Amino acid sequence: MGYGIKLRVWGEYACFTRPEMKVERVSYDVMTPSAARGIFEAIHWKPAIRWVIDRIHVLNPIRFENIRRNEVESKASGRKKVIYAAEERQQRASLVLKNVQYIIEAHFELTEQSGEEDTAEKHYNIFLRRARQGQCFHRPYFGNREFPVNFDLLEEDAEMMKYSNVHTGEIDLGYILLDQTYHVNDDGETVEVIPHFFRARMINGVIEVPKLQEVNR
Amino acid sequence: MGEKMGLSKRYEFVLLFDVENGNPNGDPDAGNMPRLDAETGCGLVTDVSIKRKVRNYVELAKQGEPSYDIYVKEAAVLNNLNKEAFANYPDIELKEKKPDKMEAKHKKDQLMLSRWMCDKYYDIRAFGAVMTTGVNCGQVRGPVQFSFAKSIDPISPQEITITRMAVTNERDAEKERTMGRKSIVPYGLYRMEGFVSAPLANQTNFGEEDLELLWSALLNMFDHDRSAARGKMATQKLIIFEHSTVLGNAPAHKLFNLVKVTRKSGVDIARSFDDYEMLIGEAPQGVTIIERL
């Protein structure tokens, strides 16, 4: 498909929580394709399209910082009147990334829910228009909402060259989350969520993201 | 309740607040010393710390008013003690007001429930919540998003040792006094950036009145958060970027860059807001800059 999009995203903090360490959150070294998809969806998304992440360029050195905060242990519920923060306090640490910057290469596919009026050109142009103007449906974030994302559309391939790479050689990042598939029943309720992982290798700062089908083989 | 005047514009804002001889936000990992960015030496205040103050302010300002309840409360507010009595009997509440848990198995009931929660609680409407009503937990993403506040200049926290003329335990009686510690920042000017998304506001029914309340909370919250630890804290400036459309007219980072806060030339050590100067650039087309305070 000729509708590849390159988006530069950056921010002061990021936390792409590892599922195996999510009580005291520990971030992955890099952004997951799932988090990257969330950024695109925050800018433009319709049920007619599905974002697919192709490549993630890691521009900044990978650095961590520890932040411990007071959190509450329970979730909100209709049966409960209020949560008393002082009684349900948990102090949890988060090991977050600092000063991150990525270039995400992505494209979208039309889904079975797309109608006649949903052409690829239309969605491509809506996305370009919004990204150029800095518009978004909601502010995208790096993993958690307190870590907002700044974004810039890279329209020329030459612009990519401006951002030199600090990572050289091949770095094995181990297994990281690729994305999750949601199985939804007729009422639109999520019945099952299946996580998919892939072996992430960063070669000269670039992580090639495999297709979901390849991972499932 | 019903539908409110929805938001038709996107907003971003910069909040400047300062602290004098106090601890704006203690770090539990560092013995309650003020939070520090270890690399730059700049002070930090977490997003949740500010959210806590917004909640406390709304609770005080809108005490008892329907649809302005606060879900995540600090138990220190006296009024809550009365309510706690009710909380001990959750069964009564359940039958009177809400559908039974089993009924919320269906998507539409869940939506109804989360809407009900949004209508009743200001903080859920503004900041969102993970709700576990029913089998599937509905999740509400609120329109208001804060980031970490960071000080303009590196801060230099000080440990102050204090004494108390009494002891807690009898076995320490001969000691006569106990020593304690307090960490303070002599002066720090902090900057927080935040976002209000109009599409999400319309999903949680966060209306124009709610937005106005958010602004007044940001302006007044420190006036109702006095304590021995905090020292003198105050909101110094609130700069709001109002876009003319729902999706916005300019990238947020470009707008934030318009507000430059620097130490005045000739000032080596800042000890008050007067030691700083603020420059606001010209807004791009379609964006209005509103200065509050």
UniProtKB/TrEMBL annotation, chain A:
GO biological process: defense response to virus; maintenance of CRISPR repeat elements
UniProt cross-references to CDD domains, sorted A to Z: Cas5_I-C (cd09752)
Keyword Transit peptide: no
Keywords per UniProt: Antiviral defense, Endonuclease, Hydrolase, Nuclease, RNA-binding
Span of the signal peptide: none
InterPro entries: CRISPR-assoc_prot_Cas5, CRISPR-assoc_prot_Cas5_N, CRISPR-assoc_prot_Cas5d
Domain of life: Bacteria
Top-level class of the enzyme under EC nomenclature: hydrolase
GO molecular function: endonuclease activity; hydrolase activity; RNA binding
EC annotation from Swiss-Prot or TrEMBL: 3.1.-.-
Family in the record: Belongs to the CRISPR-associated protein Cas5 family. Subtype I-C/Dvulg subfamily.
Function comment: CRISPR (clustered regularly interspaced short palindromic repeat) is an adaptive immune system that provides protection against mobile genetic elements (viruses, transposable elements and conjugative plasmids). CRISPR clusters contain spacers, sequences complementary to antecedent mobile elements, and target invading nucleic acids. CRISPR clusters are transcribed and processed into CRISPR RNA (crRNA).
This protein's name: pre-crRNA processing endonuclease
Lineage: Bacteria, Bacillati, Bacillota, Bacilli, Bacillales
UniProtKB/TrEMBL annotation, chain B:
GO BP: maintenance of CRISPR repeat elements
Pfam families: Cas_Cas7 (PF05107)
Protein name in the entry: Type I-C CRISPR-associated protein Cas7/Csd2
Domain of life: Bacteria
Organism in which the protein naturally occurs: Sulfoacidibacillus thermotolerans
